[in-house]
Design goal:
The protein is α/β, with parallel strands linked by helices and about 260 residues long. It has two domains: about 30 residues, no CATH class; about 220 residues, Rossmann fold. The chain has ten helices and six strands, in the order αααβααβααβαββαβα. A four-stranded parallel β-sheet has the order 1-6-5-2, sandwiched between helices. It has a two-stranded antiparallel sheet with strand order 3-4. α9 links the parallel β5 and β6. α5 crosses α7. It is globular. The structure holds zinc ion (2 copies).
Length: about 260
């Protein structure tokens, strides 16, 4: 019966590629045509064992930045390079409410085995939206992503411990320095107990300059968690890394995670 309903649904609303809108002859995620799918690149080793910045070659190791100035978190990992068509996909999710993007992302994570070896965690904290932004958008993309990507850890999701106290202007329109200033005093903890002595996993959609993630981690640190790990769906990296890093076979993808 379900198959029949799906066939009827596909007849009325033919499945299309989420990026280029090309007609697809399948309706199960990932909803990408082969051309768009080829441009979605998992972000895998070699990378910095702390901040997750990819290297053009060699082994995993600490990057110069992390060596000279240890980040406020224990580890940060991103699943994909932030490049087209993923960039437009996340824009469609956030600004056009295209939530069907989320199952497609999660099916890609599964396809490439990107979440194997994630560190042990006690609490999952999505980067919060200000209440005004949440009302406008109707959902917080970080919560949707956390639920879909880590379904077996649903019970660990805490959407109230960290809150956004300032309705800042969107980070995407600002430079690195402006981003940090824009986020000053933007987050607060409603419960220190929820985080104290816990292994925290902070989830966000995109890591660009790291300002948002770092601002959240600094607040989380005040509650004395035992560890903070960060996971984002996409990450912007310098062009040289993006073009020279090869994709590992699915079995090895995400091996260094943690
Ligand atoms: Zn396409
Ligand atoms: Zn690093």
């Amino acid at each position: 019966m379900f198959g029949l309903l799906r066939a009827f649904h596909d007849l009325v609303f033919p499945p299309r590629c989420l990026s280029c809108e090309r007609r697809l002859d399948y309706s199960l995620p990932p909803l990408f045509c082969e051309y768009c799918l080829a441009n979605i690149r998992p972000l895998v080793s070699p990378l910095c064992t702390c901040c997750g910045e990819p290297f053009p070659g060699g082994e995993d190791h600490l990057c110069g930045q992390c060596l000279s100035n240890a980040p406020v978190y224990e580890s940060c990992r991103s699943l994909f390079y932030y490049q087209p068509p993923l960039t437009e996909l996340l824009v469609k999710l956030k600004f056009s409410g295209r939530t069907e993007v989320v199952p497609t992302l999660s099916s890609l994570v599964e396809k490439y085995g990107l979440l194997t070896g994630l560190p042990e965690i006690d609490i999952i904290v999505p980067v919060p939206l200000h209440i005004k932004r949440l009302r406008q958008r109707g959902f917080n993309q970080s919560i949707l992503l956390a639920r879909q990507l880590l379904p077996e850890n649903k019970a660990l999701l805490n959407v109230t411990a960290l809150v956004r106290t300032k309705n800042t202007i969107p980070q995407s329109s600002l430079s690195g320095k402006e981003r940090r200033a824009n986020l000053k005093d933007s987050f607060a903890l409603t419960s220190f107990e929820a985080v104290k002595n816990k292994k925290v996993l902070l989830i966000d959609d995109v890591y660009t300059t790291g300002s948002t993630v770092n601002a959240c981690c600094r607040i989380l640190r005040k509650a004395a968690p035992s560890e903070i790990h960060v996971l984002t769906v996409a990450r912007s990296v310098s062009r040289s890394y993006a073009t020279s890093t090869s994709i590992l076979p699915p079995g090895q993808a995400g091996k260094s995670r943690g």
